[in-house]
Structures are given as C-alpha cells and as structure tokens.
Write a structure and sequence with these properties.
The protein is α/β, with parallel strands linked by helices. The protein has helices at about 5, 25-35, 45-60, 75-90, 120-150, 185-205, 230-235, 250-255, and strands at about 15-20, 40-45, 65-70, 95, 155-160, 210-220, 270. It has 8 helices and 7 strands, in the order αβαβαβαβαβαβααβ.
Length: about 280
C-alpha cells in the first residue's frame, strides 16, 4: 500500500456514530469498518441497533461493532457510554455527530407535514433542536473532553445542503392539494443544520491547539425511495441532474476522519451534485 493510501487507515480507532442505525449512520459505519476502525453506534432503538450490528458482522466477519441504546439528549446516558468505552479501550478517537430529526418526504415524519411557520408546534421545534443541536453539543462535551485530555481526536458534524441554502418548498408541493395541506420543510431543520456549521467553526478554533480537528460534511438529496414526481423536481435543481446514492458518501467520510485530512479543520465539505452553486 502506498504512503498516501496508508493515511486513510484508522486501525483500532474508536469511532462514535450518533444515529448509527439510520440510513446515513450505516454508511458512516461502513466507512469506519473499511478504514479498520471500531464503530460505536448510538441510537434510540435497541432492536434496530441489534439488526444493524448483525448486518455488519455478516458483511465484515470477525470485526468489532459496538452498539449502545442511547438518548443523546441525556448527559448521563452519554457519560455511561463514555465510561464503558474507556474501561474497555482506554481511548475515544472519533465522534461523528449524525443524529437529527430529519423531516423526510418518505416515512411520514411528524415534522414533515402540512404545518406552516405560524403554527409550527413548539414541541416539534424543541424536539428538533434538542436532538440535532443540543445532542451534538452534549456529545462534543462528553466525548470531546476525552479527546482533549488525550490531545488527539476528530469530530465530524453532519449538516446538509440545507445548512447552506434554504429549503425550496416548491419540490414538496403536490398537484391537486389545497394550500393548507401542502407539505412544508420546517424551519427547525434549517436552524439545526445551519447551527451545526457554526458549532464546527467554534470548536475547530477552540480545540485547534489541543490536537482535535472539527469539520462539517453536508450530504444532500439522498435517494431513498421517494416518488418519481419528487425525484424529478429535485433533480432539476441539481447540475448533475440526479439525486445521490448512499454509497457516494463513504469515501469522503473516511477521508475526513482519517489522517488523510490532517491539515483540515473548521471546513465545510459539500456533497450535493452542485445544487448549492446554482
């Protein structure tokens, strides 16, 4: 293996992935496994975590995959994970802040509905901020302190193209549906994804001389079985003319959490097929 490719290795590094059992979380897990690291999946559903672990154990025989049913908005829950990992491995090397309440066209998410700005329930706002921003903040506090003490670590915050631009509500509209019943991407998602980028910049400067790098990845337009009308609408907004595949993020994730990006911190990497430059 050439010296360049060796820089992508993260052998035996303990890599925490929040929302680890979700669609992108599983791709992040794949990145860690491909690099030789130990993925630690945090999620709120034990059954989904167990199924995800089984899937990767079959795909990567003999590799270690850790799972923890965890509420990332609860500091004590995170401290318990931290203590168990330190007892077993004595180090934590990477944190991927991936968890968020993502209002999707598919799946009938309660925060992706016929809700206008003026009547967005405070409950939804608070829940979205709690998971997407407060959860990332708490994880950075708890696991970042370990990295700070060891003077080594990487934090990767997952934002979105909606951390760069505003949602284009036209792509969610459906013909023949009244204005009051049209789907709307809520403001809370935009605030979370913009806030994540701000958190990255703050922590990157705060930890710059303490051996910790902090960057943001903005995935975008991920295809996950959306209907043809929606796919057509959003594809027209993308210079490459298509939505992204889940496997198109894995190599970039590994780059960002490995020594291959050793001089990168505070950066925002956008993978959007060119959407945000139009």
């Amino acid at each position: 293996m050439s010296k360049i490719f060796e820089q992508f290795g993260i052998d035996n590094q303990v890599c925490i992935i929040t929302g680890g059992a979700g669609l992108l979380g599983r791709r992040h897990t794949e990145s860690v496994l491909e690099g030789g690291g130990i993925p630690v999946l945090l999620d709120i559903s034990e059954s989904v975590l167990t199924a995800t672990k089984k899937q990767f154990e079959q795909q990567y025989p003999g590799r270690t995959i850790e799972i923890f049913e965890t509420d990332i908005t609860d500091p004590q829950s995170l401290v318990k994970v931290r203590d168990e990992l330190l007892k077993k491995y004595r180090h934590i090397d990477v944190l991927i802040n991936n968890a968020a309440n993502n209002p999707k066209m598919e799946g009938h998410a309660k925060n992706m509905g016929a809700i206008r700005f003026h009547n967005l329930p405070t409950e939804i706002w608070n829940e979205d901020i709690s998971v997407g921003l407060t959860g990332a903040f708490l994880c950075a506090q708890v696991f970042g302190k370990v990295m700070e003490d060891n003077r080594n670590g990487v934090v990767l915050n997952i934002s979105s193209d909606y951390g760069i631009i505003s949602p284009d509500q036209r792509i969610y509209r459906k013909d023949g549906v009244s204005e009051e019943e049209q789907l709307v991407k809520p403001i809370s998602y935009s605030v979370v994804k913009h806030g994540i980028i701000g958190m990255t910049k703050y922590l990157a400067t705060y930890w710059a001389k303490k051996g910790i790098r902090v960057n943001t990845l903005c995935p975008a337009s991920l295809y996950n079985g959306q209907d043809e009308v929606f796919v057509s609408k959003i594809s027209e907004l993308i210079p490459m003319g298509r939505m992204s595949r889940p496997d198109e993020y894995t190599a970039t994730i590994l780059y960002l959490i490995s020594a291959a990006s050793s001089y990168m911190t505070g950066a925002t990497v956008i993978l959007d097929g060119g959407r945000t430059i139009w």
